[in-house]
Amino acid sequence: MNPLNHVAIIMDGNGRWGIKFKNSRKAGHKAGLIVVEKIIKETIKHKIKFLTLFAFSTENWKRPKNEVDYLFNLLENFLINKIENLHNQNIKLKILGTKKFSKKLNQLLKKSETKTSKNTQLQINLALNYGSKSELIGAFKKLKKNKSNINEKNISKNLQTGSIPDPDLLIRTGNTKRLSNFLLWQLAYTEIFFEKKLWPAFNEKDYNKVIKEYKSIKRNYGTI
Length: 224
What we know:
It is a single chain. The chain is of the alpha/beta class. It has one domain (6-216): Undecaprenyl pyrophosphate synthetase (3-Layer(aba) Sandwich). The chain has 7 helices and 6 strands. Strands 3-4-2-1-5-6 form a 6-stranded parallel beta sheet, with helices on both faces. Helix 4 links the parallel strand 3 and strand 4. It is globular. The two termini are 17 Å apart. The mean pLDDT is 96.
C-alpha cells in the first residue's frame, strides 16, 4: 500500500457548475469553497500532512474583473472567519505564488501564515497568482545570483515548495485533462487522477475512492 503524504488538487469547474445549476458563476465559486472545507476535514482523517490547492493561476487575471474581485472577496471572508478555526485544528497555511493583491488581502495572507506557522497536523499550500513556469524562472534566477550549481537538488530547493515534499497524488476535477501550469517540476512522478465531476459536485466519497485507488497502484519510479 502506497504511503500518502501530499495531495495536490486543481479545483476546476466552479464557474461551469454555477452556470448550470444556479445561473451564476459566482454561486459556483461559493459552493466550491464549501467543498474545500469538507476535503480539508477528510484529509486530516487520512492523516495526510500536505494539501496543495490551486486556487488562482497567473492566467486567471484574464477573467472578468467582477469575477476576480468576487473570488478575492470570498477569500478575504474565509480568512477573516475561518483562520482561527484552522489554527485551532493545528493547520498551517502557506501561500504559493506572488502576493500581488490588495493591501487588505496581502495583510490577511501574511497574518494567516504567521499565525499558523508553527502548526503541524496539516499544511495547506494555497496556490494564488501561481504559475509553475514563473516559479521555475525564479528558481534559476536565485541559482544564478548565488552562483550555485544547476542540478535537480538545487532547483527543487529554490522553488517555492523547497521545504515541501513533491505531491504523491494530483486530482483534477472538471473533466479537463491538462496541468494548466501547475507544479510542473514537482509532478514528475505524481500519480494523476482526472475526475469528470465539477469541483462543487466533488465530495468525500469521491475523494476516498481516489485515495483508495492510489494506494493500490504499483509505483515503479523507472524500475520494473
